[in-house]
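Sequence in, structure out. Go.
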Amino acid sequence: MRAILVLLVIVVLVGIGAIALGYVNVSQTKTASLPTISVQGGSAPAFNVQTANVSVGVENHVVQTPTVNVQKPQ
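Output:
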């Protein structure tokens, strides 16, 4: 596995060196262009949503809470 990786790195470095020294010339022969797209018709979807009514209120209540007494041992 390591030998394959080393071989791949060497091939890439040789390719970069060949391009840098002028042994390989890469030139663009045709320019790229985006495709033309035509959109016609169509409509957005419609939704009818019914939700429950939620009412929030405040009520006052008196709640008795227990008292706790802690006595340390002497």
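Check: The radius of gyration is 39 Å. The chain has a mean pLDDT of 89.
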